[in-house]
Write a structure and sequence with these properties.
- The complex is a heterodimer.
- Chain A is mainly beta.
- Chain A has strands spanning 5-7, 10-13, 19-24, 29-37, 43-50, 53-56, 65-68, 75-79, 88-96, 108-109, 113-117.
- In chain A, strands 2, 4, 5, 6, 9, 10 and 11 form a seven-stranded mixed sheet that branches.
- Chain B is built from no helices and twelve strands.
- In chain B, a hairpin with an 8-residue loop joins strand 10 (88-96) and strand 11 (105-106).
- Chain B is mainly beta.
- In chain B, the strands form three sheets. In chain B, strands 2, 5, 6, 10, 11 and 12 form a six-stranded mixed sheet that branches. In chain B, strands 3-9-8-7 form a four-stranded antiparallel sheet, with no helix packed on it. Chain B has a two-stranded antiparallel sheet with strand order 1-4.
- Classes of the chains: A mainly beta, B mainly beta.
Chain lengths: 118, 116
């Protein structure tokens, strides 16, 4: 009964490179949410996806950031041409189809990916 | 729009004593859920406890209880019989239950240090 899996746990990129962060939701979950946590701050919502659809990207920076959740495989958060300000912890959460469960704990977090831009 | 305010950047408590971590919120949603998460130094986000806005009783989970005062829009976390392993960052969060599950608003957190 695996939880939300994120990889890599730690990622180091030089300025200008691309970062790809992966999130595999819990089995049976079709909703994925990405959050960013800057140092000494709480989590900030970035994007909400269902399979093959972006539902809400109101928290995504306008440039360099993109996210996808294909029919098969994990959800990917992609950051192009990274800058030092992108250094943060990126968390993924998943939940089942809303019709199946309103369980309060249904948004389970992965262990996060810590991105360091040098 | 939703907002969570945690006014205590840091708190200290003696081992075996109880501690209350404050959380106030603001929302226009009629139906919402309130959550507390623990983030130890290892970085993962651990779900602790949940309170629904229409729940009449305060939520409890082991040593954790949520002091929910709807009129005051507060959802304080009470940890009883503190343990050294409780030292961590604690986040209060909320989401509207009429919106999609999972999109949550977080406070800036409180760092709890348990003294031996």
């Amino acid at each position: 009964n695996a939880g939300v899996m994120q990889n890599p746990r730690h990622l180091v990129r030089r300025r200008g490179q691309e970062a790809r962060l992966r999130c595999s939701p819990m089995k049976g979950h079709s909703h994925v949410y990405w959050y960013r946590q800057l140092p000494e701050e709480g989590l900030k919502f970035m994007v909400y996806l269902q399979k093959e659809n972006i539902i809400d990207e109101s928290g995504m920076p306008k440039e360099r950031f993109s996210a996808e959740f294909p029919k098969e495989g994990p959800s990917i958060l992609r950051i192009q041409q990274v800058v030092r300000g992108d250094s943060a912890a990126y968390f993924c959460a998943s939940s089942p189809d809303r019709r199946q469960s309103q369980s309060p704990g249904s948004a389970f977090f992965g262990q996060g990916t810590r991105l360091t831009v040098v | 729009a939703q907002k969570i305010t945690q006014t205590q950047p840091g708190m200290f408590v003696q081992e075996k004593e109880a501690v209350t971590l404050d959380c106030t919120y603001d929302t226009s949603d009629q139906s919402y859920g309130l959550f507390w998460y623990k983030q130890p130094s290892s970085g993962e986000m651990i779900f602790l406890i949940y309170q629904g806005s229409y729940d009449e009783q305060n939520a409890t989970e082991g040593r954790y209880s949520l002091n929910f005062q709807k009129a005051r829009k507060s959802a304080n976390l009470v940890i009883s019989a503190s343990q050294l392993g409780d030292s961590a960052m604690y986040f209060c969060a909320m989401r509207g239950l009429n919106t999609n599950a999972g999109k949550s608003t977080f406070g800036d957190g409180t760092t709890l240090t348990v003294k031996p």
